[in-house]
Hints:
- It contains 18 helices and eleven strands.
- The protein is of the alpha/beta class.
- The strands form two sheets. A nine-stranded mixed sheet has the order 3-2-1-4-5-7-6-8-11. A two-stranded antiparallel ribbon has the order 9-10.
Amino acid sequence: MTKMDQEEQEFLNELEKKLWTSANKLISSLDAAVYKHVVLGLVFLKYVSDSFDQRREQLKADFTNSEHQDYLDGDEGLLLEELEDRDAYTEVNVFWVPESARWNNLQDSAKLSVGSTLPWGVEFKGVGKMLDDAMESVEKDNPKLKGILNKDYARLQIDSDKLGQLIDLIATIPFNHNTMSSKDILGHVYEYFLGEFASAEGKKGGQFYTPKSIVNLIVECIEPYNGRVYDPSCGSGGFFISSERFIEEHGGNIGQVSIYGQESNPTTWRLAAMNMVIRGIEFNLGNEPADTLNNDQHPDLRADFVIANPPFNQSEWGGSEDDKRWTHGVPPKSNANFAWMQHMLYHLNTNGSLGLLLANGSMSSNTKNEGEIRKALIKDDLIECMIALPGQLFTNTQIQACIWLLSKNKQERKDKRNRQGETLFIDARNLGFMKDRALKDFSKDETQKITETFHKWQQGKNYKDEAGFCFSAKIENIKKHDFVLTPGRYVGAVEDKDDGEPSKEKIDRLTALLEEQFLQDRMLEDAIQKNLRELRYE
């Protein structure tokens, strides 16, 4: 890590510690699911207000350095007219912030008594009402933000003193740094808060939050340089932000990417839109928050890249049997895993690539037609790579997950060799480090090891099977394993010296294999019992 990287990390760590500790003390009475929108809405308003102030200072400096003799003689009217010219802000992609929403005005006014007159001429009816009006005025003056900002501060009936203290706390966020852009600082604050809120919400919430390292891993694998990128369960837009970062790091242009997404939770839908607007990314999240599987907001979309982390093992999701998306079999109503996958495939163009996070059961389950759907996907040669992930990656679930990478065209093109009839298996269960007592994460080197293995295999350059880690299998190999796609079945075990003491990795691997065998035996027993029952009634 360079000295500059270290200084940036220290700056961010100090910011995180101050924000989370202080914020928790202020409003301990609210659920995390509600509180996150209170906090993130204010963070957003502080950011746009700071950007507005920075542009204002630039305009002032430009004006005073120009040949405006009237101003130099003491006439400030011309300067004020220049500083309040809305076009001077929007022409450089800075949001126009009306007087009633400028941060310094809000911070000062939050200390007034109810019934006082605010500087912009209206009666002060409490901090919550003032913030709602501020959000409303920002939306009104910036059409891109219409319907996006949180305007529920008054309804939540948060104590005005507490809201005032929260405003004072968020006022300390410095959206400026010697080496970091304001957007990078904002992005880090958002990611940090989302992760902490997901952890606080526990298993009942935070479904929209995918760990940054997993998001980056999928994006690095499918490489969305240009074209249409679609996420049917986009949450707060993490995959889109990672795609933007990936494009910039590889010298691309975010303007060459079109963003499409959908999200059913209204507040999370607004949060995703805020994320896109802040970064100047053109996006289409549909006309409204909606259930993707039952109210598709992009019915005619054919994307170049589809990326998603839908809810694991979603039950009672609805759906009909004659849906045109079910090209490989009707998914069970008790589990939406293969409904999500087929929805994504339906929206993928003929040369498109797909990256999807699913629960581990999707690799081996034969329950209610799932095995037949998986078999059809394999026979149609759509599965490019399967990646088994370690446990303890997610803040809101203990369900272990895997990554499916699919492609509609494995033929030779550009820098990729002909991979028809082949699937790569990567077992990454032994990778990762404990970043705290409860959660694992991938290091940059580990992410690079996985993505480089995948790309070397795609390109046919310097790829080699590695016992215990990766194996390139033919469809015939997969058939021999009854179309089960668990990487551990294919990569084998690492050959190492036996010192007489079983390692944790060996124990974990043996446990996983025993669990898998138990599941298979249980399914076989259920099938036998079903057949016996049917024979009795014949």
